[in-house]
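Subgroup meeting minutes
Present: P.N., E.W., G.H.
Scribe: E.W.

1. P.N. recapped why we're keeping a running log of single-chain structure predictions: easier to compare across weeks, and new members can see raw inputs and outputs side by side.
2. G.H. added today's entry (395 aa).
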Amino acid sequence: MRLIYVHEATLPEAKARTIQAINTVCQLAKLGAEVRLLVDSVGAEERDKIGEFYGLELPENMEIIAEKDMDAAVVARKAIAKIELKDAFVYCRNLRIAQSLLPTCRGSGVPLIYEAHKVAFMVVSDEARLSELPPGRARRRAMRTFKSESEVFDKARGIVCTTDATAALARTMFGREQNMIVARNGGPEPLKASEVEGAEGIGEVPKLIVYVGSLGGWKGTDTLFEALKILDGFKLEIAGSISGGTAIRRSELMDQYSLLEGSLALKGHLPPGEVMDFLSSKRFAAAVISIPAGHSIEPYLFTCPLKLFQYLAAGIPVVASDVPALREILRHRENAVLVEPENPEALAEGIRMVYSNRELRKNIIRSGLETAAHFTYRKRAERILSLLETIAGSR
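Output recorded in log:
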């Protein structure tokens, strides 16, 4: 089976969409597919350096292709024209690229697979509301997106949704039923319970909280900092891109939220391949995903955060906002503690709960590891490959 995966990116980059894409194609290649990953450009790094950046050993049957001064969609059209049609597929997760490739795929007979991370016209409408666009412009923008999305959902041979909400809305709004699956964003292979618990089982842990990712926007870090302010004796460690440098930004955050000295540590950016080593290097009491409910529809309904699967795989108890997108994976007091969104007191209480209740912490860790095992990149690739084989069998 041959797969042309079209992805707008400059490698190596640490954006979540590219981390997810390169892990997915790597696993598809390991499962036997012949993969060509078409990107906009590749840095001077050699192939093994790119693999090292993402913490991956790239298989020989996974080729990374970029042509100078050509975007990935143009390169894809050239590749489609040359590829043997038998068992060949084109795969992408960008709506604009998917629509632009439909005529080429129809003409060549190569099936197009579209990976939907949201219902785009709903998100565009919401973004227009938040940016206070004039109503006329907002409607026109939403309708253009709706037309594009309708065409792709109708004419793509297969649809891969990353959330149940996206799949349900695709059925309702676009009438899509056939060859559509849910394959959530994946994560690494989880640690074993014995590796997390140690020889003596679950014991006392430091008052240490972890957060991986960027700050601000719909990431909900305002709520996290407000919660930290009322958590006596706890320290928060953040790994992620920090504008302005870690020392300056830490000082700004300490002042902005009136945090106690010693309660905040910023590690700055970590290459994707080092995140799991960082998460498993210490015994964190809790890992936080604080998504606001009132900011926008995208995180509320459609988010499927990579950090969630990393937290679970590292055996760290997750304390997260109780929003529909996260409830697709998390269950309160089973594999996480869910708290009221945008409520610092509720978030602080959830953190205290997993810190102080040893039995609850043990159960959440073990259940979290089991959850992580269901949502690895390999399991994701297996589901996608099964869909491709179903479509290939019907050609």
